[in-house]
Design a protein that fits this description.
3 copies of one chain form a homotrimer. Chain A has 185 residues and is mainly beta. Chain A is built from 1 helix and 20 strands.
């Protein structure tokens, strides 16, 4: 499903993925199945989204950024792919941008959530099912299931697979409800 | 006045309201009179704007968010409506999104201003004529006429109806100029 | 080069400047040569961009903001031009918006970089080749070649013309590589 006011230029996009108004998916972007790309979102060539990824409005995913299956990215959250950007047309930056050595990759692992208006500085890995609080600035790796908040982001707890904050880290990462459900399966 | 490159799908929109290029107002959004919705703004079904509201560019107003009359929202300021978002397509989040229990409302009262690039975590009420500083992350209720800044946002003063910072909280909330004007009326 | 889904209304735009999809350049904006304006960017009447400026996606440049030659602005970074904004349709703000006295200019000098999702509060000057860290909130002037980060932004070091952090401020502002190159010239 591609909205009539969206622009999709890649052929590498899975079935069931929806792209909403004023969104732009560039040629060379790779996008899995059953994703949801909100209004005014942007996916650049060289960016990779797994299956079931949600991009809320205004999110840009740049070359070098990989979002694994089931990742959530809140509205206006921002990725980067260059630690010391300059305008490439600046004479003193010309040499630097003559190769791709400036490109620093970022990976967000399965099921993680990036809160609204958060900033992810490139070079980090956000662990499986981690949770980045709204407005946080992430400057280093985030452990699986960790909850981080603030500027710079610091860990303040753990979250369940479902997103709920855990009262304590109890050997696994299940909240009471999900743990019971898991045991029944 | 709807720009020819805007998309307005609601019928519930008051007279005198202007919607600018690449903005999207969804069916089911309720918008009052004489509002101004900047480029790349977005108003979701279930969102409510009073009269005379200003949304600067890139602002999204989600289901569950109510902006009362005369509210100002600065560029790229961000609202939320879910405290622990996960991608709804994630198996471990499926149960959670099978109902609307995840939805947490937010209310911004008459005349308040939300600064540029601020983040409002859902569940809060921003009081009448309060002022949220640019880049602040609001995590709890804000008192009427309060000025809050920082991450997380903390109160550092009071503001007049006109927006000016008050030297001291003087029983009312009028700056010298507005107070004189008020007495004359 | 103007993308077919962009909207360019100014005639004051230099040769070699590229404007990408869903971007909007208003009548009365002044834009130099060889700039690059990303998707969903916006340049208002009364805004000025020099030559070789890069605006990444979602950046708005308002009336009163001047970006000199070779400035880089990261994705979703935010400028402002009013220190105490209210919705102009609010009765208590009507007097204030009856003139242009509310307008506070901002200047970003040659070669400076504004990091992703940073917020620049109006009235400041960002010095030549300064570097604003991602997510920073700039509340006062930034010295040439200074590196500032955090909320509010504080200086934590110096950067070279090329953007690299300098181990120490050594009388000039050259990193080892650029210094050698400069000596050869």
């Amino acid at each position: 499903m591609v909205h009539e006011l969206a622009l999709v230029e890649t052929e590498c996009i899975g079935s069931g993925t929806r792209v909403w108004a004023f969104a732009h998916v560039c040629a060379g972007a790779r996008i899995g199945k059953n994703c949801n790309l909100g209004d005014h979102s942007y996916v650049e060539h060289g960016a990779t989204l797994g299956d079931g990824v949600t991009l809320k409005n205004g999110v840009c995913v740049w070359e070098g950024v990989t979002l694994e299956d089931g990742v959530f990215v809140g509205p206006n959250a921002v990725f980067t792919n260059d630690l010391t950007p300059r305008s490439p047309r600046l004479p003193s930056a010309k040499l630097r941008y003559s190769s791709k050595n400036w490109l620093v990759p970022t990976r967000v692992r399965e099921g993680a959530s990036i809160g609204a208006n958060a900033t992810i500085i490139c070079g980090v890995t956000v662990g499986e099912y981690a949770f980045i609080g709204a407005g946080a600035v992430v400057t280093k790796d985030v452990a699986p299931h960790a909850l981080v908040i603030g500027v710079p982001a610091k860990q303040v707890g753990w979250v369940c697979f479902c997103g709920r904050k855990l009262a304590e880290q109890n050997g696994g990462f299940w909240c009471e409800d999900c743990g019971e459900m898991e045991e029944k399966c």
